[in-house]
Amino acid sequence: MGLDIEKVAMLTSMVDKLIQMKRVDNALDESVVEDLIQKSLFISGVPYSDDEIAAVKRDVAYKYQIQAHPGESILADYEQTNWYDDRKAEIQQNFWTRYKNYLIDEKHFSPNVVSTLGNDTLDQKLMNYILDPKADYGKPVLKRGLIIGDVQSGKTSTYIGFICKAADAGYKVFILLTGTIESLRQQTQERVEEGFIGIDMSANTTGGKRVGVGLDNKPIHAMALTSRASDFRGNSDKIAVSLGADKDAVVFVIKKNTTTLTKLTKWLIDLNADPRTHKIDMPMLMIDDEADNASINTSSDKEDPTKINKLIRKLADVFTKSNYVGFTATPFANVFIDPETTEKMETHDLFPEDFIVALPTPSNYIGPTRIFPKDAEFHSQLVYITDAGREEEDGYSFYFKHKKDWKGKLPESMTDAIYAFYLANVIRDLRGDQREHRSMLINISRFVKVQKYIKEVVEKIHAEAYRSLKYNLCSDFELSMKDPVLNRIYKVWQTQYEKCGFTWNEVAAALFDAMEKIQIKVVNSSKSSEKLEYPKNESLRVIAIGGLALSRGLTLEGLIISYFYRNTCTYDVLMQMGRWFGYRRGYEDLFRIWTHKASAEWYAEIADATEKLKDDMFRMRDLGQKPRDFGIRVRNNSTELNITAYNKMRNATDEFEVTSYFGSIVETPYLRFNVAAQKNNFKAVTNLVAECLAKGYPFERRMTPSGKKGRYMLQDVPKELIVEFLDSLQMSRYSSDFDPKQISDFLSSCADSSIDVFDVAFMDGGNLDKAVNVCGQKIACVERKTCVIDSELDRLSIGRRGKLGGPGDGLTGIIDFNGKTAKEIVENAKSSFRQFYEKEKGMPFDETRVYPSDTWFRFVEDRKPLLLIYLIDVDVADENQTKQRDAFHSAMGDTPAVGLALGLPRNDKEAGLTSTRYKANRVYNWFDREEILAEGREE
């Protein structure tokens, strides 16, 4: 039975008033809430059902029991004067007070969250970090900062609150840079009008139509020279408005494009700048929303910035007291801006030199850490897409790497997702949320033509379901189930929502009404994009199909079902595409995400990396480190995921580099996905063993120094045979650290006796049923169950973590040597690593952790160089790739795939002589560059 939402709202309001009267908002627990509800029931005298009372409890808990702990910040100057602390008592908080009330009363924000925003994030941090609008600095000044929030976590409310506080303190000019898409700019303009100005600037009424904070009917003291209908373009520069300390605050909400930025800069200078200096002697706050999008200087020559970047800096330079504050949920690109650029002050890059602030995450925020890790609270609400492929060769009708004119059969799982959207709408209606917006996201292609085709298919699915629900759904269950559409909707209900609190009969009775008004729209960056507008007083139910426009800033109200199948491989693009993060008040149990298993694993990886990035900020604050120290600390252990697009990382270098092969181990996490190449490499292995046997070197299993069963090994193999072996290989270009020609040249040119002879060891598995014959010895293959196939790129990824071997594999071959026992050599290496770790990290190494694989080379001189050979049984975790795996196995026959690792002992003297010649960088794969960049675009 549905709830009476009006009754629920009335009782909730009464409880809210009692909380305020009794001042118990900071001491609410379940018993206090129950007592207040009973008192409100007595006062109202209206009967309420148990479900309605439960809804009131839920609403009260949402409002008052949510917490947001203070965020963290790192500063260029920890001794700076906190001007806002000194002046706060004398500042009239007019803009902030009405916005605070608006957030709590109209937007239903938790008072605790708003309190943390106002008292900590804004008062204690951001306001103190920007320039004092009343101070005389004696020369033009620019402050630059970066604010890191979570995707869909409320960054917009933070920067509107920031504008309100700054306006109260004396700022008069605000420039808000949105992304590159007009629909996003319009959405931001609307929120600024509702939260700061109080007027719809595009309304056809004198003085504009009051909205949001302006509905209090008090005088309006702010205006915008942009509107929901118009960016600063066309005849905007013909407006004659002067800026001044005694004038109303002025806001510009503009896109990041060259025409708009140039026009605004010229207009400001022409109408308001001092003709002698060409500067405006006023404080200005520039907020760059989605600061990693279109603002980064992506030019390969850092003295020739890309145009948008340069124009933003030129605009900031117009004012004598300028603040540039970027807001983003994906700061990976921003921290790679070069802090050491030699450009002059007026063309400074936008690196957040002065401060970086991590916003607090409210306790009710549902982000990646609560969804994607396997033990996460909402992990069960993921649904893996198993009926689509990576590429056409996978054998599925739809695949990642489709062309821009693709037209074919879409995955059946998309139909299930659409039916789940119908069901979620029903359940929300039955819970009394009839007036709330609901959205479904379909993001499976970056091509505009394909998006339009998807809409055609979705419309057919919807029309068919409409007919079935209208004409064939009846009270006779058996009769209804004869309709294949109704039968399938019922199965989706069983799978996804059977435990939602309503019976099938209740759901079925409300299904048609719930889905009848659903709209289907294509929302993208093209001129033909449909508008996505959420009306104020009625529920919009929409299936939004798109790519870039749905991935950058655009909020899908009430997003409840997501169908996401994209082939991006950068942290920032993946996170921005995660529109499902955010707040799900009253339907936390209903949202579902259909996605590829690999994407879900990537999100788990990103969640871990992002949390560690935030953890670093706490440690850096304690150590007094500055923003320019921040960039080097972004974590990227995955070789399948790039941190950000190549051209945004032009200034980044990986913290770990192969500067010499001495004291390191390199391996092949990527192999060729080519049967002929793999057979060639296995032939090279058998040829090496055969040649060693012919020369009298024994090939047998060696016991370890401790007496345990060891590996099959060849010992004291001449370097010349290793070079010959390397020269015969066909390895993947993606294993950039293991370049056979480079290693071969290195070995050939180095005359040091420490690498004259090698140990060669086979890393075998434990299953003799998967053994292969190598010159008379049966060697069990190493099983790798999480390989990823990319036939188009001729690439076989051996593991999700980008690792071929384990951290202890390099211990193979360590024996009593130069008067030291094997045990002594190992213990000395461990001790040296612990000393190095503590010096580098400032903390002791946790000895319950494993030592990294290079420990047994970087800190060991007393050993022979080692070649490790992995004969690999290839398997895949992605069910979508089983057909390609089976075809590969069939073509390979009894031949295993071959992986390799090569390690050389420490040799400080030789390493110093060769370090400049042999250098590799793992930040990105050059060969992936175009694919990485393309996924961030829309065509």
Question: Mean pLDDT across all residues, rounded?
Answer: 83
**Count of DSSP-assigned helices:** 25
Instruction: Classify the helix fraction into a percent range.
Output: 25-40%
From the spread of the alpha carbons, the general shape counts as globular
Oligomer: single chain
Count of β-strands: 29
Describe the secondary-structure layout.
Layout: H1 5-22, H2 30-44, H3 50-64, E1 72-75, H4 83-87, H5 94-105, H6 111-129, E2 141-148, H7 155-169, E3 173-177, H8 182-197, E4 199-200, E5 209-210, E6 222-224, E7 249-254, H9 258-272, E8 280-289, H10 307-316, E9 319-328, E10 355-358, E11 382-384, H11 412-430, E12 438-443, H12 448-471, H13 477-480, H14 484-497, H15 504-515, E13 519-523, E14 541-546, E15 559-564, H16 571-577, E16 592-595, H17 597-623, E17 657-658, E18 664-667, E19 670-671, H18 675-694, E20 700-701, E21 712-718, H19 719-727, H20 740-749, E22 757-763, E23 771-774, E24 777-780, E25 782-790, E26 795-797, H21 822-841, H22 855-858, E27 866-876, H23 882-892, E28 897-904, H24 908-914, E29 920-921, H25 929-934
Parallel strand pairs: 2-9, 2-10, 3-7, 3-8, 6-7, 8-9, 11-16, 12-14, 12-15, 13-14, 15-16, 22-27, 25-27
Antiparallel strand pairs: 1-10, 4-5, 17-29, 18-28, 19-26, 20-21, 21-22, 23-24, 25-26, 27-28
Q: How would you describe this protein?
A:
With 939 residues, the protein is α/β, with parallel strands linked by helices. It is built from 25 helices and 29 strands. The strands form six sheets. Strands 18, 19, 20, 21, 22, 25, 26, 27 and 28 form a nine-stranded mixed beta sheet that branches. Strands 1-10-2-9-8-3-7-6 form an eight-stranded mixed beta sheet, sandwiched between helices. Strand 23 and strand 24 (777-780) form a beta hairpin. Helix 1 (5-22) packs across helix 2 and helix 19 runs antiparallel to helix 20. The longest helix has 27 residues, at 597-623. The two termini are 47 Å apart. Mean pLDDT is 83; it is low at 294-305, 333-348, 631-659 and 912-933.
